[in-house]
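Supplementary Methods S3. Input chains for the assembly prediction are listed below.
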Amino acid sequence: MNPPAGPHRPSENTAAPGTDGRPLSIGIVCPYAWDVPGGVQFHVRDLAAHLRRRGHRVSVLTPADDEAELPPGAVSAGRAVPVPYNGSVARLNFGFLSAARVRRWVHDGDFDVLHVHEPAAPSLGLLACWVARGPIVATFHTSNPRSRAMVAAYPLLQPALEKISARIAVSEYARRTLVEHLGGDAVVIPNGVDVDFFARAEPRPEWQGGTIGFIGRIDEPRKGLPVLTRALPRILEEHPGTRLLVAGRGDTEEALKGLEPRVRERVVFLGMIDDEDKARLLSSVDLYVAPNTGGESFGIILVEAMSAGAPVLAGDLDAFARVLDGGAAGELFPTGDAEALAGAAIRLLGDPERRAALRERASRHVRRFDWETVGAEILAVYETVTEGAAAVAAEAAAAGEGDDAPPAGTPRAGGRAGRRR
Amino acid sequence: MTTVIWALVVLVSIGVYLSWTAGRLDRLHTRIDAARAALDAQLLRRASVAQEIATAGLLDPAASMVLYRAAHDARQAEEERREVAESELSQTLRAVLADPDQLAGIRSAPGGPAALDELTAAVRRVPMARRFHNDAVRSVRALRRHRAVRWFRLAGRAPFPPAFEMDDEPPELLVVG
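Predicted structure tokens for the full assembly:
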């Protein structure tokens, strides 16, 4: 297979790769350890799969403990180190050894476009911006308005971040955080979900019948399970048959602390579940509750719940309100308010018509989050960036023929040509 | 002797810093050039599709005239009138495609769906390319305000890069659903 001529080799072919359906060579950088489940990792995995299905060449660079466990097309940047970051413990890569690995991968891959995720996190994304030449697209996932470290580090990050040609924010909220901290602007492209995978999932009978679902780490306070368990006694008063199904890692004893035995026995812990079971759980429950108290920039789980046909009740975080179309595709309650959660849950559990209406509305609303839509948007960004880089490289090549300048292989030469125009 | 060495070290460090900053500036100007080329390509694409739709007999004669005029002006506009002409094309597209019946009419005509798809792609990519361009402009401006850059005239006589300001709101019916 001949790799397409990119901006790195602009000599003969001046057409931008990607336009007219020519395949692109894309390098994706994932900042967090591959073997730890997380929103960014899943997004990278699904994006890579989607781009490959469309015929593009994709290589993923990620921290991983064991190279052997990575899927084909993924390259390890070495072992990640656990560090507290953004309210949880993240496993990140830094140091000169990692930087050297990133440099080699960028060099060997010879990509038309480099897509870096979470470039402001002190990990591979930032390193990739630091060493890379050529067009970079970056996706900002977090929105943490109080990240003082980020503001303090701004002058340090600037030289690396200003190489990014195109910024993507996963939500309007993430975009605002980005603009506030780093200035400039970004386009909003939501995270993608394989809507049909969730829509096709078969319900499991043992998870049906007056059930409320919760998916997320049990011991992470910002995921909000304590808010839900505080609301549970009141819900049980009105609907005694209700069961709460909890899927996710964490100390189950700790989660149930302070609850009466009759409430405890209505809580079922499913532990970690795989994607298949997650979809089946979401298609089984009568209500999916997202009691998160903060730190969410998107809310992919809500899109998955809506895709699977679960009526959603979520805290009115900015990001959640947007995903739920301002409350039209799912109901909202004041964040952290267990009383309000109980009230809304009781009303919804007793009103099948309202739930059916929510389901119907949500199934139409989630289409905009489907990978078909989202993938096309991301490719449009790639094409916009490569097209510009190819034009500049072509101009540089033309300018380079006139004098004794070395062959204009790097876009940097194009800058000189452009400025003297 | 030590003083001389120290003085040399300081001078070399300053030199390295300045050369590094000049490199950054250079790279940023390349980024603007690339972003501008991409934006120009998207604007041209949009105007071309609009003109195609206007001349293909897909619209009523009045709408065709209005759209043809706006697309033509956008393509021919001088640099200083460019932003205005492109904004007017945005407004015209919104006005012409505000009516669901008009849109349905185009869609049912032969070649209509393809033209609409192309137009949809174009009206979505123009704001995208413009954001990337103006983002690059802001980065350059931020760096050029640095003291080191101003005092040592690292930016040379290159003009302060202008942002591209225009109304790029796409027709609502094309982007929803």
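Residues 306 and 362 of chain A are 6 Å apart (CA to CA). The longest strand of chain A covers residues 57-62.
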